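To: structure subgroup
Subject: Chain for Friday's discussion

All,

I'm putting the inputs and outputs inline so they're searchable in the archive.
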Amino acid sequence: MSTPLLEVQHLTMRFGGLTAVDDLSFTAREREITALIGPNGAGKTTVFNCLTGFYRPSAGTMILHRGGRKYQLERMEGHRVARIAGVARTFQNIRLFVGMTLLENLIVAQHDELMRASMFSVAGLFGFSPYRRAEKAAVQKARYWLDRLELTASADLPAGGLSYGDRRRLEIARAMCTGPTLLCLDEPAAGLNPRESDRLNELLLSIRDQHRIGLLLIEHDMKVVMGISDHVVVLDYGKKIADGKPVEIQHDPAVIRAYLGEPEPSFETEPSASPRDEDR
């Protein structure tokens, strides 16, 4: 079994009198795909917002292991969660810079590295060699991902002209350009047709296997979840109701009830008479 990458313990998020996430604990491991699933309103996106610094949780800890160090995400500002702890994220709604080219979208994701190499513009302005090397490396990394997506021929075209499925994949590639330790994907298969969904699966599996990082995804497409996940955590009304391998989750009665509701009563035998019926 791979080593822990993210350890969430007793995570709780309250909004006034509403508890959106209630005492949630789970572990996501290195080089694994962990899916966070549940019906609408289960608290999944709230968990992501806590992990990535958009929300400060009401209680609990979120420890990320990176390079032999531990980062307590609940104590970090959002920009430091991404830059220092190495947590990258995509969103339900695609957030590409549609007016920029594909290449520019991937280079802008490396802004922090380029700014440090430029000594915050001084070295970049005068073209010093450390900045030129960093700029060349950024372009190489961007072109590597365009090659992976088979989009190199469109490198200089606006991202807004891509198909929906290619925009989804480009957004994931942009997140990978930040060099993450943990990649958080919020409904990456939403709106994809079966062919696009298959290409997405191939991309995510290759990221796990070749880049050897952990992936945490929220997804409603159970074909995607069961097809690529190593580990599944199920939420319902903010509480964890199941945690295990996909095959275990598929047959868990609590998960089936959460998604399908309580089973209808059987009418194979007549129901017993109620006391009121007997009085008649």
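Points worth raising on Friday:
The domain at 1-78+214-264 is CATH 3.40.50.300 (Rossmann fold).
Residues 129-148 form the longest helix (20 residues).

D.
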